[in-house]
Amino acid sequence: MSAIFQGKVFLMVGKLPKSQEQAIPAGITSNGGKTTTDLENGGATHVLISVPSDTRQKITREASAKGLPVLIRDYITECIDANKLLDEKDYLQEVSAERVKRPSTVISNDDDDADVSPDDAPTKAVKRKRSTAAVKANPPPKAAGAKKKKKKAAAMDIDDDDNNKDAAVSIADDDDDDYAGSDKDAGKGKKRARKTAEKKEKDDDEEKKKKQDEEKKKKDDDDKLKAAMAVTSAPTYTPKTSTVTKKIIKKGGASVDPICEKADICHIYQESSDKIWKATLNQTNIKDNNNKFYMIQLLQEDANPNNFYIWNRWGRVGNDGQNKLVLIHNLEAAKLDFKRKFRDKTTQEWNYNADYIKKPGKYMVIDIDEADDPAKPDSPVPDLLNPEPPKQEPLKSKLHPSVQKLIEFISDVKLMNDALMSFEIDVVKCPLGKLSSKTIGKAEVVLKKIEDLINGNKFGKNISSELEQLSSEFYTLIPTVVGMHRLPIIQDVNTVQKKQLILDQLRNIDIAATIIKDSSDNKLKEHPIDSKFNSLHIKLVPLEPDSLRFKQIQNAVINTIAATHYMKLKIVDVWELEREGERERFEPWKDNENRQILWHGSRSTNWMGILSKGLLIAPPSAPVTGYMFGKGVYFADMISKSANYCYAHTSGGEGIMMLSEVALGKTFDLTGSMYMEKPQPGTQSTFGQGRYIPDPAGDIVLENGAVLHAGRQIDRTKQSNLLYNEMIVYDVSQIRTCFLLRLKFN
């Protein structure tokens, strides 16, 4: 028994001839391989097809999208008969009906095929060159089924932009018969027809001139590119679908795509700190099931600055996709190639960090923050001119051990990446902290438009197309991984609320990633944990378990777990907490008669942002859905009410909570929801009165007069739509953080 197919699993597609129905599967099995008919769960490593050529083309594309080599039965038979190993580089199934040996190099001075599956590239290039001249001379009629093929290509996220460039444009003539009638009317009709014809002729001339100018510009660019290129390497196609984890190396102001084979020896070309030659593009169209990205980078070799590369990578969001690397020995030629591809994908001229506008059917530029991936800190890059200094002894942290553990917990990169993946964010294209606050803000504006559209539809009007378009805009800004499935339309306020929570998480993770990155830069000066802590600008003093304050807080934790909240909480650590500048900000409220010590909970991945920036109020651009009493900061007097927002199951059963001194002043009391942007006249806060409250007999009055609620739950016997109390302030100066707790959840 031979082992030429050892470890190979062949997905059998199509019906084999009767003479080979048993022979081929038996030949595969006897040579160490396996067969399957289940693409999703069969563990296939290759696709073996025996179907008509038109169906074969579709299967080839689908298999390519999944990273599976496609083989034909003749080649498998050849391997079995000759007892030879598969040579996947030389014998991959092409789109044509016959097996074609892949050329070892493809010489090309442009990347018109950059959006085409590698298996299709040679065939499509030939077809395009053959058809262009013919179209100019005698535009052919649109082929039957072309629309259907375009839809199939769109569903597979195969760009078809280049294939449409030579399409003939026809304009219907005005129908003069519309003006038939009386002689007088006929005269007017002829006059109108003449004016219409003149206007049409003028418009046609302008359109023709515009097209001629565009064609001339493109031809000039192409001529310059060809003239400038001294030597151009063959485009290298590397289909990839699995997520590859590689170290992100930042040189200068930007990071080379880690999937690029030249990432270690090149940097992204930049003319200044804000003029960096890179573009990350995204395009989502729910209707056509498009959810794809396109990356363009102009690279320069570190050791040989006269060598430049254009790196393109494209595919469906969530996959590594396909790529192309072109060597160019001329900077101007490389710039021209970059600009041409950018214009082709966006229909806009390249202008570094311009605020580009999304054009229908084209890609949108995504603003990506350029910071090193905090999950993968750089290893030192050898510098021959500046040798590496001698290694020093590891620095020791100056922080209390409990504080060290806290900082490690709330800056855990794995938890942050897990959070991103749970939101279906593409962590390959938008690694930790790379999605800029500018992009997040734009997505928030789109969500607000969706919310306004839903809430404004009082008469049941069909708004599905508008929602589909806005949802596509949102997913274009926030790359979302759904595999080959269609992205869901955001069509109700509950989904709006969920998406807004994701944006809030992304903001806090962005802050955390920046702090983590800065601490990595300072690792030679101080311990990374100390650097992260110092970036927060806070003071933390551990409370001893036998201290009075610890015991008071412990009573509040034990007694204020609500009957309907099935949880047990155990204190791990308690710290006195003071944020820099907060005491001074709170000064006008320090003598307010109604000051309470209240609970606030949030995910562990949010606390680097909360401790650094404080508790914040949602911006005006954010949707209002989910805020029962408007956009403010929400607190509770029952710990379990706030503990539900810790989502401790996502962080190993542990969570972080805060106790703050909140100046409520005169409250506006409610027993049901009411939206407001600020306190009602004559009040300073809103008090959502719940049916169940901590027993006032257990209240603890602290030395400064603020009240900590530590009594057991009692029934207020007052009708309310709320089970438990909620307190909301609309001015962050009414908040002073006092204590931070680390808790175990059961």
TrEMBL record:
The keyword NADP does not apply. Residues 97-224, 375-397 are annotated as: Disordered. The keyword NADP does not apply. Residues 195-224 have a biased composition (Basic and acidic residues). GO terms for molecular function: DNA binding; NAD+ poly-ADP-ribosyltransferase activity; NAD+-protein mono-ADP-ribosyltransferase activity; nucleotidyltransferase activity; zinc ion binding. Residues 527-746 form the PARP catalytic domain. Its EC number is 2.4.2.-. Residues 1-93 form the BRCT domain. PROSITE patterns: BRCT, PARP_ALPHA_HD, PARP_CATALYTIC, WGR. Residues 109-118 have a biased composition (Acidic residues). Pfam families: BRCT_2 (PF16589), PARP (PF00644), PARP_reg (PF02877), WGR (PF05406). It catalyses: NAD(+) + (ADP-D-ribosyl)n-acceptor = nicotinamide + (ADP-D-ribosyl)n+1-acceptor + H(+). Residues 265-363 form the WGR domain. Keywords: ADP-ribosylation, DNA-binding, Glycosyltransferase, Metal-binding, NAD, Nucleotidyltransferase, Nucleus, Repeat, Transferase, Zinc, Zinc-finger. GO terms for cellular component: nucleolus. One of its GO terms (biological process) is protein poly-ADP-ribosylation. It is found in: Nucleus. Residues 396-517 form the PARP alpha-helical domain. It is an enzyme of class 2 (transferase). Belongs to the ARTD/PARP family. This is Poly [ADP-ribose] polymerase. It comes from Streblomastix strix.
